[in-house]
Amino acid sequence: MTGASDDNTLFARSLGIIPGEIRFRCLKIVVALSAAYAVLWLLGFQKLFLYDAEGIATLIQIIGTLYSVLYAFATYVIWGQFSSVESGILKESGALKDLLLFSAPLKEATREPVIRAVKSYARAVVDSEWRALADGETSEKTDRLFYDVIGSITSLKADGDSERAVYERLLDIANMASAHRDERLSVSVKRMPRTLFLFVSVTACTILLLLLFYPFRNLGLGIAAVAIISTLLFFAHFVVSDLDNPFQGTWNVSSKAFEELIHKFR
User: Fold this and answer.
1) Each residue's pLDDT tens digit in the chain (266 positions)?
2) Domain ranges of the chain
3) What is the dihedral angle through the alpha carbons of 109, 115, 121, 127, rounded to the nearest 10 degrees?
4) How far is CA 2 from CA 6, 9, 12, 175, in A?
5) Would you call 193 helix, strand, or coil by DSSP?
């Protein structure tokens, strides 16, 4: 009983991740397609294809196999881009944290401009750049503030050998941060090729269309098949379209690494 209860709880939590609006839209599509099949079945439309049932089944199987391959490829592409964005965020924020940590030996007055520049940049990334990247654009404000971060490092004046070593180390870290930022922005504005997305969508719609023509002998079985397959295809489409944009939707990359720069590090 405990195992079954845990499974039910896990299922409820998993379902709760999906927004209610999306679930309601899925329900409307499933009801509409099921009703369409029922009406066609009662009108005897599928009887016209009674002797072609085997051919339609074969066609559904072929297109279903093609859809599986396309969907797997699309998911691989999207998840690769999603992971690259997450990796870029961690690399860039990690380099900026290193700037704060390795600048600790410097005098407070010398170090203060570096701290202020890093925190201002991190705040702008969280407040404005995230929204810009969701629209596939970059932010001029964060570009300018990142230049201020680099400027705060290059304007440092080393006083003695120990500070000179710190200064050189900070320059290296700033170069790494710049490279990581360029990489992060590059992958953040990428989206799945529209032709691939269109091909996957058209293939799914073709499967549903053929299913409406399939002459199930039992009306209940036909409605159940249409409902199940349309539900699976809808949520498969939802996952791909949602993950395609890492900055908006249900599954997003987190800005926590940059928020920590604002509040936790000094």
Assistant:
1) 454 555 455 445 555 677 788 889 999 999 999 999 999 999 999 888 888 999 999 999 999 999 999 999 989 988 888 999 999 999 999 999 999 888 888 888 888 888 899 999 999 999 988 888 888 888 888 999 999 999 988 888 777 777 788 888 989 999 999 999 999 999 888 888 889 889 999 999 999 999 999 999 899 999 999 999 999 999 999 989 888 888 888 888 888 888 888 887 66
2) 93-191
3) -120
4) 6, 10, 15, 55
5) coil
Q: Which two tokens stand for residue 185?
A: 């922005």
112's CB contacts (< 8 A; 6+ apart) are none
DSSP state of 46: G
Residues 6+ apart with CB under 8 A from 131: 247
